[in-house]
Amino acid sequence: MDQKCVICKSATYHEHDTLTSSLRKQFWQMTSMRMFIWGDWDLTDMESDENIQLLACPVPSNRYITLFLKKYIEKIESMPDYELDDELTEFYISLISTTNTTSFAPGMCYKTYVLDKEQYMRIVLQEEQTMVSQGTTGLQTWDASLRLADFFAEHPGIIRGQRVVELGAGCGLAGFTCAAMGASNVLSTDFNSDVLKLLEGNRQTNTEYKDKVQVAELDWANLEECARISSNVDVIIGADVSYDPTIVPLLVAALETMLVSPQQVAYITAAVRSQETFELFLKLVDDTGVLGKSVMDLTEAKMSTLCLPNPVSDIRLILITRK
Ligand SMILES: C[S@@+](CC[C@H](N)C(=O)[O-])C[C@H]1O[C@@H](n2cnc3c(N)ncnc32)[C@H](O)[C@@H]1O
To answer: For residues 248 and 265, what is the distance between their CA atoms, to the nearest angstrom?
Structure first.
C-alpha cells in the first residue's frame, strides 16, 4: 500500500519511511530529545534527497526537526570517516535561521504513530506540545497511552472483534489503535470539551478508522450514562486516568458500574508518579468487593510495535474484571 501522508499530502508513507525503524518511529512521534533512544542506526539513510523532503514535511514541527537535526549532526560529526552531507547541512541552516528553538513555542503539532513495519499502518494525531494546556492534561498523548496502545498492537487477539470504550481518551491513541487492531467498534470518550473537539478532529484525520470510532462525552461521575454504555461494551480501556487522588473514586465507581459481567474486562495503564495514588486506586478496586484485578509491569517494554521512549515514571497495566 502506497498511501499518501495525510498531512503533507505529497509524499507517500513509503517515501517517508526511509529512516531506520526505531529512529523513524521516534522522529514521527516527536519523542523528546531527552528521552530519545538512538541505538544502532544507519547514517546513510538520512543522506538522500528524499530524506530532505521527509524533513520538510510539516510533520513534526520545524522546532522539533531543528532539535532533532542538531543532535543528529552532532552524532555524525563525532564519527570518524564520515562527512556531513552538504544538502543536509544547508537544510539545517535554513531551518535554524527561521525557527526559534530557544523559547519554547507551544502549539499544536501532528504526531504520527507507526503501528507496524510492513503495511504502513499509521495513526496521525493532532496534539498540543505542552503537558497541560487550556487547563487540561488531555491534549497530549501520555506515556501510559503509548504503552497501552503498544500492548494492544502486540496482542491484537484480545481486541479483535471486541466492542471497546475508552475512558478519558485524551487525543485517542489507545482507542484508535484498538480500531486498527480489528476492534468491531470503539467509543472514545472524555469529559472535557476541548479534548472532545480535538478527539473528533483526530477521528476525521484517520480516515481508515473513522467509521469504526465514535467520539462521545462521558463523565465518570455520570453513572447513569456509564450504565447505559456498559450494555454495548466488551472491553474498557483507559490510560493515565488514575493520576489524581480526587478523581480515582469516580473512576472506580465508573468501572464498577460498567463491568457488569465477568466476560467484560478493563485494561487501565497507570504512570506511577505517586505510589500513594496508585495504591489508592488498587485499594478502591478491592474495596468494591465485586471487582478483581491483576497488575503487570510495562515499564521495561521499549522497542516493540510502537517505539517506546524511556518512561519518566514506572508504568503498570491493571486488568480489572467482575468476580
Ligand atoms: C492524563 S490525561 C490522559 C489522556 C490519554 N488517556 C493519554 O493517556 O494520553 C487524563 C484524561 O482524563 C480525562 N478525565 C479526567 N477526569 C475525567 C472524568 N471525570 N470523566 C471523564 N474524563 C476525565 C481528562 O479530560 C484527560 O483527557
So the answer is: 18
